[in-house]
């Protein structure tokens, strides 16, 4: 599904993934809002906003760490009150840590408010997944915490391990990085927003079958 022109993307957590998502969203023509109070207090690298403005977005994507440190703890950041503040037909995506979203509150909210669309890659208490969440039709995608599953992530972890082994004199020789796509792709003919959306969806589908992981996880949970 796609957002209408002028849709808003709210990102909580402006680390490595949050930055990439912001860049992608802006390239797709979305109005991007970012909430990261810890980073906002330390830098003026971009305009940051508060959580209430994020909850008013069409899509809310969570990429923050999980902690209970004052003054901005993230455990159960998305609680009953936050869920109630979400707009109609909003999309809530949790790709951070499971307990950033209160899973019990989410289950109760979905039982009484079927307009919300949810995508979960992480789960409170994982690997034990809150029973019943997967039964809601509003849970559009459910994956078993696939962090580190991509080719890039596997290569990065392998490179870090090899670098540590070489530093400990357990590995000889230079580390070579395999050829990858250029960071900046050549200019392409101008495309409409729908064409960019469809092209991006096709590219991602060619790289990873998220529907397959979703179906496999639901089969396991249904046992």
Describe this structure in words.
The chain has 223 residues and is an alpha/beta fold. Helices cover 37% and strands 12% of the residues. The radius of gyration is 19 Å and the shape is globular. Residues 181-186 have low confidence and may be disordered.
Identify the notable features of this structure and list them briefly:
alpha/beta; 223 residues; six-stranded parallel sheet; 6 strands
Reconstruct the topology from this structure.
Layout: E1 8-12, H1 16-27, E2 31-35, H2 37-42, H3 51-55, E3 59-62, H4 80-85, E4 91-94, H5 103-112, E5 117-120, E6 139-142, H6 151-167, H7 193-207, H8 210-221
Parallel strand pairs: 1-2, 1-3, 3-4, 4-5, 5-6
Give the ordered list of helices and strands: EHEHHEHEHEEHHH
**CA radius of gyration:** 19 Å
What is the helix tally?
8
Instruction: Quote the average pLDDT.
Output: 84
Derived from helix and strand composition plus strand pairing, the structural class reads alpha/beta
How far apart lie the N and C ends? 29 Å
Low-confidence stretches: 181-186
Largest sheet: 6 strands, parallel
Strand tally is 6
Please tell me what the overall shape is. globular
How much of the sequence lies in strands comes to: 5-15%
Helix content: 25-40%
User: How is the largest sheet built, in terms of strand order?
Assistant: 2-1-3-4-5-6
């Amino acid at each position: 599904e796609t957002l209408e022109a002028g849709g808003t993307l709210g990102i909580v957590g402006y680390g490595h993934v949050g930055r990439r998502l912001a860049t992608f969203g802006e390239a797709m023509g979305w109005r991007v809002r970012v909430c990261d109070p810890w980073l906002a207090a330390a830098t003026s690298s971009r305009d940051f906003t508060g959580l209430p403005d994020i909850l008013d977005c069409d899509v809310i994507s969570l990429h923050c760490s999980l902690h209970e440190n004052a003054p901005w703890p993230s455990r159960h950041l998305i609680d009953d009150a936050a869920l109630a503040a979400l707009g109609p037909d909003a999309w809530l995506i949790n790709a951070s840590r499971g307990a950033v979203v209160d899973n019990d509150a989410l289950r109760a909210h979905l039982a009484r408010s079927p307009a919300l669309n949810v995508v979960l890659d992480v789960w409170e208490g994982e690997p034990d997944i809150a029973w019943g969440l997967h039964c809601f039709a509003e849970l559009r995608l459910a994956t078993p915490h696939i962090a580190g599953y991509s080719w890039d992530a596997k290569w990065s972890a392998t490179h870090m391990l090899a670098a540590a082994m070489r530093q400990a004199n357990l590995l000889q020789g230079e580390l070579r990085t395999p050829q990858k796509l250029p960071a900046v792709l050549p200019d392409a003919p101008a495309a409409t927003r729908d064409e960019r959306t469809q092209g991006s969806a096709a590219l991602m589908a060619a790289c990873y079958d998220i529907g397959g992981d979703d179906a496999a996880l639901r089969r396991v949970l249904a046992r």
